[in-house]
Amino acid sequence: MQANKFILDPDGFYHIRMATLILKNGIIKNFPWLVFTNLPTSYTDHHFIYHLILSLFAIFLKPIVAVKIATVFINTIFIIIFYSFLKSQKIQYAWIYIIILLSSTPFAFRINLVKASSFSLIILFLILISIFKKRYKTLFLLSFLYVWSYGGWPLSIVVSGAYLISSFLSQKMQNFSKDFFTIIKISEWKPLIITILGSVAGIIINPYFPENILFYWVQIIQIAIVNYGSKVGVGMEWYGFNISELLRYSTEVVFLLLIGGLLFFGRIAIKKYKIISEEQVKKILLFLILSVFFFLLTLKSKRNSEYLFPFAVTFGALFINYFWDKEVYLIIIKNLKSFFKKRFLYVLFIVYIISMFFVAFFLNSLRIKNYLEEDHPIDEYKKEMEVVMQNSNSGDIVFHSDWDDWPIMFYHNQYNRYIVGLDATFMYKYSPNLYKKWKDITWGDFIGDPYDIIKNDFNAKIIFIANSDKENMDKYIKNNSHYELLYEGDADIYKVK
Question: CA–CA separation, 240 vs 249, rounded Å?
């Protein structure tokens, strides 16, 4: 999947460049490139450890090769840890669940982008292992490192909180007569408390403290939770799936849950009511809570699918494993054979079901490989950025037509400064007025000639118009004596007179 010269998600260019800058300069604390955002004063590299890992590969390899091999390496480590986690829970045929997980298109697609998705999942599952084995020093360390590794570090608190809730519910199910408050064992609070303490330590003992507090407020609260999608043009990953679309991508997982449901109700039907232990109930509830939580988040934002599928597959695996019963299995098989009547049709059905998973796996792999070769070759905008640097001074501001182009521009050119990048919310929080002016001009909604705004409000020396935005901006810029055309290609480059 990685054997190509494309970086499908523009953010990947940012991650590549940050890795090489760390190699050259160490920790990047000053971030002057995005002038009209609040990042120059509150920048935090919330992927610092991820960028550090990428930089280790970049020591020996070209940047594009380094990040692709690093992506393969990190993804493989996660799959090994996920498999080991299933085996530690005594899940039989754990490899089948790996096939099912990798057959889920949104998950496999997301982890193959140059992003910290799999690295985040590695830490989350190590956190779960630490909670289950009561390794609280390790839990504290992992919670600390998670803050340094990924902007979604509050997920560790969510996982520990879900463990506390599942512990309470499982105890309550076993002890209905006990008082509501005294039923929660003190020891069950430890994971949540330690995770919170580790996270707070990671925020304070941090090269970006105290500026990181403002950054996390915008990144986690304003962008991830509030989401200004109605006011600001955010990335496609921040928009959610609809239920029918998500269920279509979750066929294998839904099938797992159906099997688990058959086993569960089958046990009830044959009057095996005391079926699993309190500890098993706790784990099923834990992964049910997390699956529902990430399901709801995925409906809000596609980017959460990378968490939904591993937790949902684990829930299905535990459900099947804990409720497995030979007597129920024989009843299901007997009824299936009766339904198909002829043995040939029954065997054909079983072969079809088994084949479906392997066909889905291979077709999904092929589909994602094709997706990953659709857009953003590694040399995109390289020539355009050379023209910009040749016709400007160090630090001159480039007025660019789309915030999503910034990572690619930044990858090729750190010589200049730019309007907005990473997320348009950073500009909106810096100045709603300037954001509106920039948006109106780049979207073609501005009335009149925007020359004074481009030259004076934004102090821009160069204008960069991607081909996809020419229709919006040509009416202001093309054939206007205030601008000199320098280059035409994947983007048009103009000099502001």
Answer: 13
> In which element (H, E) is residue 360 found?
helix 343-371
User: Cα separation of 268 and 385, whole Å?
Assistant: 67
C-alpha to C-alpha distance for 396 and 398, rounded to whole angstroms: 7
* 3-state SS, residue 441: helix
Sign of CA pseudo-dihedral 60, 62, 63, 64: negative
Rounded to whole angstroms, the Cα distance separating 53 from 118 reads: 13
pLDDT tens for residues 198-242? Answer: 999 999 999 999 999 989 988 887 777 766 555 666 566 666 777
What stretches of 35-153 show up as alpha helix (H) in DSSP? 39-42, 48-58, 63-88, 94-102, 105-111, 117-132, 136-149
The SS3 assignment for 391 reads coil
* Model confidence, pTM: 0.89
Work out the mean pLDDT of the chain and round it to a whole number.
Answer: 88
Q: Please give the single-letter amino acid code of residue 237.
A: E
Distance of CA 320 to the CA centre of its chain: 28
HSE-CB at 46 with a 13 A cutoff on CA atoms is: 22
At 28, list the tokens. Answer: 């990047």
Burial 424-448 (b: 16+ CB within 10 A, else e): bbbbbbbeeebbebbbebbeeebee
